[in-house]
Write a structure and sequence with these properties.
Layout (H helix, E strand, L loop, with lengths): L12 E8 L5 H18 L2 E9 L11 H16 L6 E4 L5 H11 L2 E4 H12 L3 H15 L30 H36 L6 E6 L5 H9 L16 E7 L2 E7 L9 H6 L1 H8 L3 E7 L5 H14 L7 E6 L24 H12 L3 E3 L8 H19 L15
Parallel strand pairs: 1-2, 1-3, 3-4, 5-7, 5-8, 8-9, 9-10
Antiparallel strand pairs: 6-7
Length: 417
């Protein structure tokens, strides 16, 4: 049976679909679709159109309702006539197996949801055996309840019981038999992958125990906020960094020395809105680095218009993985890319966050977070020495508390020598 780990990236065209609800207004829906477009581009697709629909909640049968689905179908058919074939339709939420079947039957085109797209990117980004195993397990977990749609071509054969009621003579049950066979194969494969991950967990746990008496610091944050760039700066290492979502899947741990103090710094997978639960479960060994860290550096892209929402997403994810309550330093990155809209002198409307200068924003957050808040540019190396100083102060305090009788400190030396 095919293993769903390696995904070929092709420049297919895609249409995106999202819904506007009472809890998700039009501005937020458009923001989510922009992020979905970035995800699609990361996977190798070219987005040609966005569709939105106002609903109280997602339609249980077709997600957007029959009318909107017909509008999407008409657009796809029209593009095909103009020889601009649309390769797929991507929905901004996870679709149920029922929704997936109905939408595919109506549109007759490849359908992806946000979860399957993220899984595809993870499969593309996975480099090590550990990451590949974690991604494959998450893919099988996602696929298992959706197996039915892979065998819809057998529905017309009408499997049934041997009593003669409901079912064609000589064709009773083959669809169900194949479905159950695939289900058993997948369950066996998942069991094997879980055993592998259990072994990896033991190895990782042993590695963490053998790292000596050093404070552990973990970089956390939304995807594509510059964690890997910051890691390279602090650890003077060469961790892969790219302006794409989920450039980092495997946790990288480096020893960092600031003045006379050594500590361990780890770069972890970025978080995102609606991160699939199966991925969180599968990436347990990776996220253990965050759970066991003594200090978290929460990196934020201050140039992003919705960075405050991203902070909330990360905080919720930390709570979900039982990593909340740890000491946190907020590191606002990309100050060199920050822009604001200056209000005209005759504009009497209330100021919004888009009208705040960088200095005003800094003062606001520093008043809220006191000395646990920094503003830097990792790319331009702005305020990096201040970051080193603050990290040194916090790590030293934690070191003294955790290892009061440990003098495992280096002599002060000049790193430039």
């Amino acid at each position: 049976m095919k293993e769903f780990v390696i995904s070929e990236v092709q420049a297919e065209t895609a249409v995106l679909v999202g819904i506007i609800t009472k809890t998700q207004d039009e501005r937020k829906t458009n923001e989510y679709l922009d992020e979905l477009e970035f995800l699609a581009e990361t996977a190798g697709a070219v987005v040609v159109k966005h569709f939105t629909q106002k609903l109280d909640m997602a339609h249980s049968v077709t997600y957007v309702g029959k009318g909107k689905l017909e509008e999407i179908k008409a657009y796809i058919e029209n593009e095909a006539e103009e020889e601009r074939e649309v390769g797929m339709v991507i929905f901004d939420d996870e679709l149920s197996p029922k929704q997936l079947r109905n939408i595919e039957a109506e549109l007759k085109i490849k359908i992806l949801d946000r979860t399957s797209l993220i899984l595809d990117i993870f499969a593309m980004r996975a480099q090590t055996a550990n990451a590949k195993t974690q991604v494959e397990l998450a893919q099988y977990k996602y696929m298992l309840p959706r197996l039915q749609r892979l065998w819809t071509h057998l529905e017309r054969q009408g499997g049934g019981s041997g009593s003669g009621k409901g079912g064609s003579v000589g064709l009773r049950g083959p669809g169900e038999t194949q479905l159950e066979m695939d289900r058993r194969i997948i369950l066996n494969r998942m069991s094997l992958l879980k055993e592998r991950l259990s072994e990896i967990d033991k190895q990782k746990s042993t590695q963490r125990k053998n790292r000596g008496r050093m404070i552990r610091v973990a970089l956390v944050g939304y995807t594509n906020v510059g964690k890997s760039t910051l890691m390279n700066l602090l650890a003077k290492s060469e961790v892969f960094a790219e302006n794409k979502l989920f450039a980092t899947l495997d946790t990288t741990v480096r020893k960092v020395i600031i003045e006379n103090l050594p500590f361990l710094l780890s770069d972890t997978v970025g978080f995102i809105r609606k991160l699939p639960t199966d991925l969180v479960d599968s990436f347990k060994s990776t996220l253990d680095e965050v759970r066991e860290a003594d200090l978290l550096l929460h990196v934020v892209d201050i140039s992003h218009p919705d960075f405050e929402d991203q902070i909330e997403v990360v905080n919720r994810t930390l709570a979900d993985i039982d990593a909340a309550g740890k000491p946190i330093i907020l590191v606002f990155n990309k100050i060199d890319a920050y822009t604001y809209v200056e209000k005209a002198p005759d504009d009497l409307t209330p100021r919004t966050k888009e009208n705040l200068t960088l200095e005003e924003l800094m003062n606001t957050w520093m008043a809220k977070m006191e000395d646990n808040c920094l503003f830097i540019s990792a790319r331009e190396k702005i305020n990096v020495e201040e970051l080193r100083s603050v990290v040194y102060k916090h790590v030293k305090e934690l070191h003294v508390q955790k290892y009061p009788y440990n003098d495992f400190l280096y002599q002060t030396y000049d790193e430039e020598d």
